[in-house]
Amino acid sequence: MEDEDEFPEFAEDGDEDGDEPDDGPERLEPAAFPEGAQWDRVRAAALLVVRYCSLLEPPVATPWVGPVRNALIRARSTAEVLLREGYGPGGEISAWDIGLTRWILLGVTGLPEAVRRPEESVDGQQALARAVYDVIADPADEERFAEACALAERLAGPELAGEERELVARDLAELAAAREAGREPDAEALWARGDTFARRYADRLRAELRAAGHHIGEVMTDFPVAVSERGADLARDIVASLAGRFGVSEEEARVRVFAYFSDWDLTDESDMGDLDYIGHQTPEEWAGSIYLGLEFHEVRPGADLSGHEPVPLPE
Questions:
Q1: Pair 115, 69: CB distance under 8 Å
Q2: Residue 146 in contact with residue 132, Cβ under 8 Å?
Q3: Higher pLDDT, 301 or 298
Q4: Most distant pair of Cα atoms in the chain: their distance
Q5: Residue 93, SS3?
Q6: Nearest by Cα to 50 from 183, 202, 237
Q7: Which among 115, 172, 234, 255 could bridge 111 via Cys, Cβ 3.0 to 4.6 Å?
Q8: Assessment of whether the complete model's pTM goes beyond 0.85
């Protein structure tokens, strides 16, 4: 949890019943909204998250399917909406949204290693996301922004650090020019430039992680059964979770998942339908239950699964 001296306005004495204050996102909400040149830093910082948290964005098999991936997805999606729809009074992203994202990111740091599966590049993305949301939370602090930029350059590596530095400088210049002219910046141009870099960075990082023995899959686009859009999303997440968590091939994960759901209706999006029921558990819990035949509460992230044998592979 953040030092309460840093954001004293959010350090409460407890509720009316004398209970301890909640360790919730309200304790981490930003101290102020950005003004003037601070807007340039906030937007440029948000673009850093969009560039560097792209590896885990699609539901593909990785060792980090679960809390780590979910925190980075939250960081990236919040930054996307901040850039496209606005932040602050009247914007789509509120102070509470920023607080919740910071709270989720902070929670990842307390996860046991068995869940986090430490890896320098992925831990670096978490550190960068936390630094960026510190910038958004305290937009007057220029040192925070400089630290976030330095983290991004380290993640970029020697071959991309110079390009990353130029991207930040160009982003800041264009954002300042738009602000001084009293117009909104060309968000699509900023986005497209960053997205091109993000794809190159993510491709390089996937290759490095695969070479290090990590199971990094691809996005599943074909399905052996009829699925709705929501059904496809759920199936992808469960397949990715099973392959990533247990180190099996995506083909095996697909066979297991679709054999398990062979009698389910993955097109039923009604309130009490099959997809609604599936959505009550996390993809990690479904993956563990399908693979090991255990109850959901027995396979939550961090559970000791040693000694359990997988269910025989369906024929």
A1: no
A2: no
A3: 298
A4: 66
A5: strand
A6: 202
A7: 115
A8: no
